Amino acid sequence: MFIESIELKNFRNIESLRIKLDPGTNLFYGDNAQGKTNILEAIYMACTSKSHRMSRDRDIIRFQENEAHIKALIMKKGVPCRIDIHLKKNRTKGIAVDETPVKKASELFGIANVVCFSPEDLGLVKDGPASRRRFMDMELCQLDKVYLYSLTRYNRTMEQRNKLLRDAVYNCKLLDTLSAWDDELVKYGRKVMQIREGFIIRMKDIISSMHDELTGGKEKLSISYEPDVSIDDFEKNLHRLREAELKQHLTLTGPHRDDIRFSIDGLDVRKYGSQGQKRTAALALKLSEIEIIRELVKDNPILLLDDVLSELDSKRQKYLLKNISDTQNIITCTGYDDYAQNQFHVEKLYRVMSGKVSFA
């Protein structure tokens, strides 16, 4: 699969852009704050409806404008699919697939599989659990419709349940309905945990193999799923924590508190690993994400690389480039040197300056 073309209007600092991309490697270079990452952000939104920067829609629209547009043509196994996204400052975004409006933004998930890799991702291992949960969620939402549905229902149920916990301070009769929300939370939470566990088990051998190559077999990396509570004990835990939840007005147990554990030779990398070990484990994790998509979808994902190479030493640069040679790569960087010295072939080279793109 690949993005054939992207068209933007009033997207961040880009007033107007229309380019055709190569199925191979497309490299956008230029100084910082010129708009390179904005192009990757638009492509990511076209595939997932979300910003990889966690930005609000209104913040993406060009200054002093009220609307922005993204149009992307995606080719998947020879079949074209057109995505249109209309961002509005004070209204919900509008989305159309092949000119047919969709009711839910989540319907974009799975049309194209995209992996975004930025320097921040090299901190996945050392960062807090929320970043690792987001990694699982974004990957699984693209791959598994049951997971997408279950996670959406779980999050909505938790929001309603938290609201009830807050409102019960003023109306204790609301607590009579809490058991019904508990049932919904457990139903969808168990499914989320079950799919997450299977995903990490599937990734275990892949990431271990990747890490072996990166370290020359000197260290053994293992990952495991760390649920906040077991599937069987989820309902029991809700009842046990009822009093504390009423005091804090929050749901205190469930998959919204899950994590992933990284171990090297049996030791927890988050606690005992060096900065280099944490970055290497994160790189192996992102490359494993690409490999899992290949296995499950039987196609290569679209890879977005946001100025990552400059953060890696020469050995890790070479390993990364070797593993992405058969995907469509859309890359940003401040200079072309790292790619040239690694003899990495670039089909299309663009220069980005003040939100304008030109062939280099």
In one word, what is the shape? globular
Instruction: Return the average pLDDT rounded to an integer.
Output: 94
CATH level 1 name of the largest domain: Mainly Alpha
- CATH homologous superfamily annotation of the largest domain: RecF/RecN/SMC, N-terminal domain
The assigned CATH architecture of the largest domain is Up-down Bundle
Kindly report the CATH topology of the largest domain.
Answer: Glutathione S-transferase Yfyf (Class Pi), Chain A, domain 2
The helix content is 40-55%
Question: Strand order across the biggest sheet?
Answer: 2-1-4-5-6-7
Output the helix-strand order. Answer: EEEHHEEEEEHHHEHHEEHHEHEHEE
Instruction: Count structural domains.
Output: 2
Structural class: alpha/beta
Strand content: 25-35%
Instruction: Tell me the major beta sheet.
Output: 6 strands, antiparallel
How many β-strands, per DSSP? 15
Which residues sit in consecutive blocks of at least 5 with pLDDT less than 50? Answer: none
Measure the end-to-end span: 25 Å
Q: How would you describe what is shown here?
A:
With 360 residues, the protein is of the alpha/beta class. The chain has two domains: 1-113 and 299-360, Rossmann fold; 123-298, Glutathione S-transferase Yfyf (Class Pi), Chain A, domain 2 (Up-down Bundle), CATH 1.20.1050.90. Helices cover 41% and strands 25% of the residues. It has helices at residues 36-48, 57-60, 129-143, 145-167, 178-215, 234-240, 242-248, 269-272, 275-297, 314-323, 337-341; strands at residues 2-11, 14-20, 25-29, 67-76, 79-88, 91-97, 100-101, 114-117, 221-226, 259-264, 267-268, 302-306, 328-333, 348-353, 356-359. The strands form three sheets. It has a six-stranded antiparallel β-sheet with strand order 2-1-4-5-6-7. Strands 8-12-13-3-14-15 form a six-stranded mixed β-sheet, sandwiched between helices. A three-stranded antiparallel β-sheet has the order 9-10-11. Strand 4 (67-76) and strand 5 form a beta hairpin. The chain is globular, with a radius of gyration of 22 Å.
